[in-house]
């Protein structure tokens, strides 16, 4: 075997290990969200308190993410990932044994912190290992596999008795299972060398097209999935048709990411992000006009949802093309932070929109978010000032 073939084999093994790790944990994560909500509701906990407890995971990401690159530089990417996976498993099984409600808040924080480490370092690993010419394809495969993992979690929950310890044990086992490919990837994990910026504003200013994409997608994904069924019900749909809106949105996400990743390898990713933002704006704006016709609305939601999810895929690939080493780890941490902020901000914003204009305030609020994003990216593209410390201006196709 030639040196080139050996390097390529190791590159593929490294990417596969990171993707397998995230895919397994994705199942556990998507299992945990409805499981914990059902468990709290069964205990008579109010909806407000359930929402606050769920938000602890997002708060943990915002608090922990800035420190992840420095911790990984000291402990190693592989070592910190395994620690985070063990912490996630312990937190998951801990919910079954934690009887006082107040204990669920630190447990949710610890689980959120473990997930923050997992996603920041896994995406850094994948981005660092991806070949430059096929980075978008690799990120598309990652996003597709992760989406399939997210889809599998609720299916697992539906097959077991959620009032027993079994779903908690399965969730913990999935986190431990995610550590297996990482443990066998000895010598394949990238090293974080040098000093990255600890100030997230450096990355926000250097790569606003990608970082803002994370916020918008986090807000639209979480808010959309939360309120689309309610939007369908208020439009007069039956329960099944209203719930199908979320399934169709997720299906579009799975089908579109790999083709979109391939396209992103051939074009300027900032321009592609602008196009995706415009599609997001147009699609959301069209919904009130076609909401009464499911044969039109459902295909629009599928195509629109898949392309909008491309903000995450293309945004990650864009970061990988612009940053290296410790700076790439810092950029990934900032990306995940903004995604988490979007998760926190999206549902309240869309809930207010729905209350102000029932029911079309939902798509109009989404359209306004995309309009703001389009302005940000358009301003970035029209900015011609040469800036030697601007990593975003380096490495993109002209």
UniProtKB/TrEMBL annotation:
The chain crosses the membrane at residues 12-37, 49-68, 80-98, 104-125, 137-159, 165-188, 200-220, 240-260, 272-290, 296-317, 329-350, 362-381. It comes from the Bacteria. The keyword Transmembrane applies. Keywords: Membrane, Transmembrane, Transmembrane helix. Residues 1-385 form the Major facilitator superfamily (MFS) profile domain. This is MFS transporter. The lineage of its organism: Bacteria, Pseudomonadati, Pseudomonadota, Alphaproteobacteria, Hyphomicrobiales.
């Amino acid at each position: 075997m030639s040196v080139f073939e050996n390097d390529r084999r190791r590159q593929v093994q490294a990417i596969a290990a990171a993707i397998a790790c995230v895919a397994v944990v994705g199942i556990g994560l998507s299992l945990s969200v409805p499981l914990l909500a059902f468990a709290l509701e069964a205990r008579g906990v109010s909806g407000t308190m359930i929402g606050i407890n769920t938000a602890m995971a997002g708060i943990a990401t915002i608090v922990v993410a800035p420190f992840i690159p420095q911790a990984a530089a000291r402990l190693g990417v592989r070592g910190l990932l395994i620690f985070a996976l063990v912490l996630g498993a312990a937190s998951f099984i801990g919910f079954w044994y934690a009887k006082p409600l107040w204990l669920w808040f630190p447990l949710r924080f610890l689980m959120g912190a473990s997930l923050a480490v997992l996603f920041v370092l896994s995406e850094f690993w994948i981005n660092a290992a991806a070949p430059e010419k096929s980075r978008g394809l690799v990120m598309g495969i990652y996003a597709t596999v992760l989406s399939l993992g997210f889809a599998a979690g609720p299916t697992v929950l539906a097959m077991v008795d959620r009032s027993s310890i079994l779903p908690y044990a399965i969730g913990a086992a999935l986190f431990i299972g995610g550590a297996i490919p990482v443990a066998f990837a000895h010598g394949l994990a990238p090293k974080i060398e040098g000093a990255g910026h600890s100030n997230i504003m450096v990355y926000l200013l250097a790569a606003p097209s990608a970082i803002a994409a994370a916020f918008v997608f986090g807000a639209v994904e979480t808010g959309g999935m939360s309120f689309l069924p309610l939007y369908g019900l208020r439009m007069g749909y039956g329960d099944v048709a209203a719930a199908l809106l979320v399934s169709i949105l997720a299906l579009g996400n799975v089908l579109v990411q790999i083709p979109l990743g391939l396209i992103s390898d051939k074009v300027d990713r900032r321009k592609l992000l602008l196009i995706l933002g415009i599609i997001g704006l147009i699609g959301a704006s069209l919904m009130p006009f076609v909401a009464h016709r499911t044969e039109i609305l459902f295909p629009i939601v599928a195509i629109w949802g898949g392309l909008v999810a491309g903000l995450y895929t293309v945004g990650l690939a864009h970061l990988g093309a612009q940053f290296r080493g410790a700076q790439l780890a810092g950029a990934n941490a900032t990306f995940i932070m903004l995604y988490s902020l979007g998760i926190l901000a999206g549902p309240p914003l869309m809930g207010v929109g729905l209350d102000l204009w029932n029911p079309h305030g939902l798509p109009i609020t989404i359209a306004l978010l995309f309009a703001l994003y389009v302005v940000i990216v358009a301003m970035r593209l029209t900015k011609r000032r040469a800036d030697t410390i601007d990593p975003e201006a380096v490495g993109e196709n002209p």
